[in-house]
Design a protein that fits this description.
Rab_GAP_TBC_domain, Cyclin A, domain 1, Helicase, Ruva Protein, domain 3, mainly alpha, Rab-GAP-TBC_dom, TBC1 domain family member 12-like, GTPase activator activity, two-stranded antiparallel ribbon
Length: 397
Amino acid sequence: QEYESRVGPATEPPSHPQPTRRKNLEFEPLSTTALILEDRPAYLPAKSEEESQRHRQEYSEMVAGAKRREMKEAQKKKLSHPYMRNTRRVRELWWQGVPPSVRGKVWSLAIGNELNITPELYEIFLSRAKEKWRSFSETSSVNENEDCGVSLADRESSLDLIKLDISRTFPSLYIFQKGGPYHDILHSVLGAYTCYRPDVGYVQGMSFIAAVLILNLEEADAFIAFANLLNKPCQMAFFRVDHDLMLKYFAAFEVFFEENLPKLFQHFQNNSLTPDFYLIDWIFTLYSKSLPLDVACRVWDVFCRDGEEALFRTGLGILRLYQDVLLQMDFIHSAQFLSRLPENTPAHALFSCIANTQMISNNRRWNQVFSALMKDGLKETDKSSSSSSSNSPALRS
């Protein structure tokens, strides 16, 4: 005590210094990042120069990777933002192909929801469809079907045609066929649509459009996009088999066909091969049946960006791509070839042909040419090129 009164109280034994915590940070860095960035505490051996350099290199790579991810996210946001669709940079990105991770969202925004369909409304029409299917399985009586508000034609469309088409939808994928993970979803979307639009009903080819949407969207969202897409003027004209309107689309197509590929156009004229023999199937399925799925999705990207013009421009791109082959074929072989395109149609070559297709005729773009046909009717020159279409067995079917 006397000693302490002279020299003061005994000091505590030295302890290991505690690592200082960084202040004013909203988060603590992940352990890997901290290990790379921080020097070791004083009570641990210091890093060697080689280890420090390696850690600095790892950190640089992490930063670069984060920047790349940020750029991709920014690109996705640009593509999906409705106000950015018409900027030059975004249009280029659409042409190159929308990233699959945001493709469904981008398509939904581009297609829109003018019909104001909600997921709840989808459930209502799906319930009606299931009730119809249940009544069909319980009785085959026409009278009972009529009591349920269902005609024999409705029965055939909602049962026979849908079931038949589902089994033939992307058969190589094995996901839409009976027992596949998407079979019931596809059946539900198509069935609900027949209840939602009984005036249209089910038309062969719809299953391919619905299937592509299901691959990119949740079930209810796929139905919303499907119903709104089929409500577009071009799709409605074809699916309701509006002959007069279809002839105008064919006539407009032939204007640009002759403008871009005069030699092949004349060859088809000489062989009486009219657009209805190949365009109907292409438009019905938005090329998802005719082209490889990944290529068809890129066509959809451009279609969502440019509207119906892109569908007919794609058709001209296909004709340009296979022009040399088609020039050597007669009517039958040309029709067979165009109804069953090569399975290995290359995306790069096709989109190069599409890019080289000019949708301008006499200083008029597609919508101007089509509007003139709608306003003034078919002119004499257009009548002569389309008259065979009006009598075509393909169009009558």
